[in-house]
Structure to design on (177 residues):
């Protein structure tokens, strides 16, 4: 390689590093997915406080699916709004998660919850929203995903070894609340 080309490549590599730094993991742990179901209506921030949009995520679960807490916190509301069951959990960081369209709830106001703890059961629709004060926050990038280690399955019909426990993998997210 010509000696003139080496400093140029070195400078180019440094420039690339400055333009696209390696991804940084979020400061805190990610949120546990509240349900294993397809998203049918994603978060859409409204243009104004009373404009149309979706201030949370709507899922299309099977009726009766378990709904779990996204993070540790305290139940600040558990009741019915317009004939629909809702549960609101205030997390340790001050954010509030709203879980809606529940068929059943297993908690009451003041109960302490842990991330992954079952809160209730879904109807054929399920809603989750996240707020900082009165400001809706898109929870999509904060939700982790459950990953299991891949394993080989014997082709001779014998039972394979059990797979390891699934772990929560966080997405790369922009910092801050």
């Amino acid at each position: 390689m010509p000696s003139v080309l080496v400093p140029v490549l070195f400078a180019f590599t440094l420039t690339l590093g400055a333009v696209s730094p390696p991804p940084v993991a979020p400061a805190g742990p990610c949120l546990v997915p509240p349900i294993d179901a397809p998203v049918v209506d994603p978060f859409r921030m409204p243009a104004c406080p009373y404009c149309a949009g979706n201030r949370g995520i709507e899922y299309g679960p099977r009726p009766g699916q378990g709904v779990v807490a996204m993070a540790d916190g305290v139940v600040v509301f558990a009741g019915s709004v317009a004939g629909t069951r809702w549960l609101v959990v205030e997390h340790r960081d001050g954010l509030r998660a709203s879980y809606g369209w529940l068929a059943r709830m297993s908690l009451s106001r003041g109960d302490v919850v842990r991330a992954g703890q079952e809160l209730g059961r879904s109807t054929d629709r399920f809603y989750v929203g996240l707020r900082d004060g009165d400001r809706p926050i898109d929870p999509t990038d904060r939700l982790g995903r459950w990953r299991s280690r891949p394993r080989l399955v014997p082709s001779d019909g014998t039972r394979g070894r059990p797979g390891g426990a699934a772990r929560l993998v966080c997405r790369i997210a922009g910092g801050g609340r």
Q: What stands out?
A: The longest strand covers residues 118-132.
